[in-house]
Amino acid sequence: MKEYIEELKDIMGSKSKLLFGKISYPKEGKVSINPDITKIQSNTQWREEITFEQGIKEIINLYEEK
């Protein structure tokens, strides 16, 4: 997730300072989300058509047009 946030910051040209790890984890422990999309890919033959970077750029362009 950190890499995606850093890439999003770069794409947007933000000068903001990112503060990873500045918020404490919950008492239950570290939160981790690692989805496995292989099942949906095999069941639907779905494949990515654009990269993460391309998708973010398109979203930003749509937002800026409004």
Brief write-up:
By secondary structure, the chain is an all-alpha fold. Helix content is 48%, strand content 0%.
Task: Give a written overview of the molecule.
This protein is mainly alpha-helical. It contains three helices and no strands. It has a domain at 1-15 and 37-66. The protein is flat. The protein starts with a helix and ends with a helix. 0% of the residues are buried. The mean pLDDT is 84.
Give the secondary structure arrangement, pairings included.
Elements: H1 2-12, H2 38-44, H3 52-65
Helix pairs in contact: 1-3
Q: Give the CA-based shape.
A: flat
Give the fraction of residues assigned to helices.
40-55%
Number of distinct beta strands: 0
* Class inferred from helices and paired strands: mainly alpha
Strand/helix succession: HHH
Q: Which structural traits does this protein have?
A:
66 residues, mainly alpha, NAD(P)-bd_dom_sf
